[in-house]
């Protein structure tokens, strides 16, 4: 049956989740139940090698929604207290851009690309007509469904941003002491199709138990995504709506999240545009980045090209067979602690430069007792980061043999190093000029100046500096 002819204005439903990487059926994971995302993939363009701008939540999301790398958008670390990084200009958010063009803009669920503030404040700063954050996946889906119903009744073009917390790690009464798993109090583990343990982890009983939890969380998230997509159809909005599904970065496992190896930067990216024939049931293999998503959406909505963003529209890649980007760039500066590093990836090689000798890799499990162990840590113990890492992705896709320590690869290192340094200069990367301090540095210094009396005053000593605390988990 032929599709009805639809003309603009078109809508956008952008669904995102935490910490998924590409751990779903459309990317070959056969042991996880993702029927709704499988179905969406069959109706979409599946970008097989899409990468985040950063392997952690806030910087990657800020890049996704602004089309600008973290060095330029200002989010070099987490945005909730006590970390408190923020967009240099909140008006850079895509919601502002679409709202100024007459779109109704709404956000439901996770907002982690700008400072975590009250919903009405977030709405005003980022350009949303309405914001309702919080809630586990079923609550977020309920609110998204209600928002779609309101959009259908209004007849106004809309941008609806839906953020699911799952499959992020969630505290649970079922967790063993010192462990934060993936279940919370509302998810069951799922090993009904078996369990996939990624190649970069040692495969043992505890790893399989943790992966079963993760698979349960992904299955739960997929079900909620399906509810939202069904509501879009029920509202009669499917044919006029661009649907984007993605995540912020790789899985919350050692050597993935918080690392610049491919498992940390890889993301699922599905884009459905029913009113354009080329955007259905297609898989694209070129290197693409989260910073490409915003210009792609705007071109699909028939907006003129923007200036000031760093990505490229993927419409020519999909519809005209244009050449994909030669390089994909990654970066991390702060997460739990200062761990500055940058990377550049080509079709065949990856170069990572580490500006400090932090532990390799950072542990993103938020657990004192880690249940999964990278193979390299089991073999060699915890080491600090070498200054330079070079990997041949063709012969060594797991990025396990550092060629920077071996002879005969200087030409590859030089070529990628030149590309990386050129990009850092273009981004006005603060690491070029030295170490980067966090917002907490300024906050603590201001607190000290306030509470410590002048040294020439008679005093019994400085009062204790109140610690910066937060009830929010580290993302």
Write the layout of secondary structure elements.
Elements (H helix, E strand, L loop, with lengths): L10 E7 L17 H8 L2 E7 L5 H10 L3 H4 L20 H7 L3 E6 L9 H8 L3 E3 L4 H18 L3 E7 L40 H30 L6 E7 L14 H4 E2 L1 E4 L9 E8 L3 H8 L14 H5 L8 E7 L3 E8 L3 E6 L4 E2 L14 H6 L2 E2 L3 E5 L17 H17 L12 H13 L24
Helix pairs in contact: 6-7
What does this entry look like structurally?
29% of the residues lie in helices and 17% in strands. It is an alpha/beta fold and 475 residues long. The chain is built from 13 helices and 15 strands. Keywords: Hydrolase, Metal-binding. GO terms for molecular function: metal ion binding; sulfuric ester hydrolase activity. It comes from Haloactinopolyspora alba. This is Arylsulfatase A-like enzyme.
Q: What are the salient characteristics of this protein?
A:
13 helices, Alkaline Phosphatase, subunit A, 15 strands, Arylsulfatase, C-terminal domain, 475 residues, single chain, four-stranded antiparallel β-sheet, alpha/beta
Please give the CATH architecture of the largest domain: 3-Layer(aba) Sandwich
Described by its quaternary structure, the protein is: single chain
What is the element string, with H for helices and E for strands? EHEHHHEHEHEHEHEEEHHEEEEHEEHH
Rg is 22 Å
CATH superfamily of the largest domain: Alkaline Phosphatase, subunit A
Distance N to C terminus: 45 Å
CATH class of the largest domain: Alpha Beta
Shape: globular
Q: Could you estimate the helical fraction of the residues in percent?
A: 25-40%
From the helix content, strand content and strand pairing, which structural class follows? alpha/beta
Number of helices: 13
β-sheet strand percentage: 15-25%
Find the CATH topology of the largest domain.
Alkaline Phosphatase, subunit A
Mean pLDDT across the residues is: 93
